[in-house]
Amino acid sequence: MIRSFVLNSGELLLSIFFILLATMILIGGVSTMFTTSFFAGLGVIIGGGAYLIVMFYVIYLFVDMRHSLKELVKQQQIEE
C-alpha cells in the first residue's frame, strides 16, 4: 500500500522535498552568513543549491526511466 502510494505520487513528493530542502539550505546559508562569515554562508547557499539540483536531477532521471520502462512493457504486452 505505501509502496504504491510512493510510486504513484513520487513526483509530487519529490517536488515537496525539493522545496523544503531548498528552504533549509537558504535558511542555513543566511544563518551562517550572520554567525560565521558572509562568504561561508554564500558557499553554503551556492554549494547546497548545486548539490540539491544535481541530486534531484538524478532522482528525476530514475523516476523517468521507471516510467518509460513501465510504458515500454505495456506496449510490448499489447503487441503480443
Short key terms for the protein model shown above:
80 residues, 0% strand, mainly alpha
Chain-averaged pLDDT: 88
Q: Tell me the β content.
A: under 5%
Structural class: mainly alpha
Overall geometry comes to elongated
The helix content is over 70%
Please give the radius of gyration in angstroms.
19 Å
- Amino-to-carboxy terminus distance: 30 Å
Q: SSE order, as H and E? A: HHH
Largest sheet: none
Describe this structure in words.
- The protein has 80 residues and is mainly α.
- The chain has one domain.
- It has three helices and no strands.
- It has helices spanning 2-8, 10-35, 38-79.
- Helix 2 packs antiparallel against helix 3.
- The model has no long low-confidence stretch (mean pLDDT 88).
List the helices and strands and how they pair.
Blueprint: H1 2-8, H2 10-35, H3 38-79
Brief synopsis:
The chain has helices at residues 2-8, 10-35, 38-79. It is mainly α.
